[in-house]
Amino acid sequence: MGTIVLVSGSPSATARPGIVVTHTETALRAAGHTVTTVRVRDLPTVALLAEDHRDPRIGAALAAVQAADGLVVISPVYRAAYSGLVKSLLDLLPSGALAGTAVLPLATGGTQGHLVALDFVLRPLLFAMGATRVLPGHFVPDRMITPEDEGGVETGTILPLAAAALTDVLISFTDSLRRPRTTHTTATLTG
Amino acid sequence: MKRTLAVVSAGLSVPSSTRLLADRLTTATVEALRERGVEVSVEVVELREHARDLADNLVTGFPNEALRHSVDTVTGADALIAVTPVFAASYSGLFKTFFDVLDKDALTAKPTLLGATAGTARHSLVLEHAMRPLFAYLRAVVAPTAVFAASEDWGGDEALADRVRRAGTDLADLVAARPPATRPDPFADPVPFETLLHGA
Prior knowledge:
A: alpha/beta; Rossmann fold; two-stranded antiparallel sheet; B: six-stranded parallel beta sheet; 18% strand; globular
């Protein structure tokens, strides 16, 4: 059982990516993992956007990400890319911070057409950050998510077919946690 | 008619190489426009100063007065120069957040010049792989020349100066070939008071 950090780029408590976050938290906890969710919108955004590492809440969020066995990055697709909010937190991680961490990118978007943002924008970002174990990732179209406003709580439903697909993705993600982290050896390649 | 040029810089430090590149691109564009007989006024938007406003916009869904002014400046401008520092082979989160909150039609058909700054030349293709797709999605008319400046390019490097000049010429050609932008007048088409009273 591992420690998993979810980075949520959901813009508001009841938005669709927030429902994917809740669903993912519940499923991973049920499987026995320790789950911490970093809701980027709840961080002191001025310090975040101005890249102020000294802020204690931002420091705690970054430490949690770096200590995790697995990381799930959940972003809405805005302007055919990850949201600026998600990017602003990832910008603060030191280079190589994600080496060896299993990383699962998840995205939500208005139409199936936004699916490509996952492979063309979000995964390349994670690779550029030095992540070595990025899973294929998964896209949940907005129409598969039904938000319900219950006093600002992230509740809502993912339609059964989409929920089942997400569960499959989470199972392969947790399977990948069981594999040991890649360790660097000093062995040299010989002919 | 005098044109307007909006300059968006996402530099964080003071002084910032991002702002420096933005200023060089601005000077080159203004000169190239003057050669074409076009007078232009420049308005600079420093995104660093809008960190709180952008944060508020994400929560409330609309820009406050300070951010509204910058959003209107960019939306109503005849041309845009947008410059970001490079983080993780892409634009910064601050830069992206501004274009996330900007109306998706705000840049349609707007002549736009792109720039990026970084410590090394390693990520110079960020212009082609991250910046251009973003502005293509927003349907901006992006100048063929975009400018990347690494730390080593500063300090009398002629190659950078040439590229900046070429970029300014590209943008000036795009602006000069177009009629002046029409700025939306918020008072042109008011909702009748009677309709407001009916709660429509």
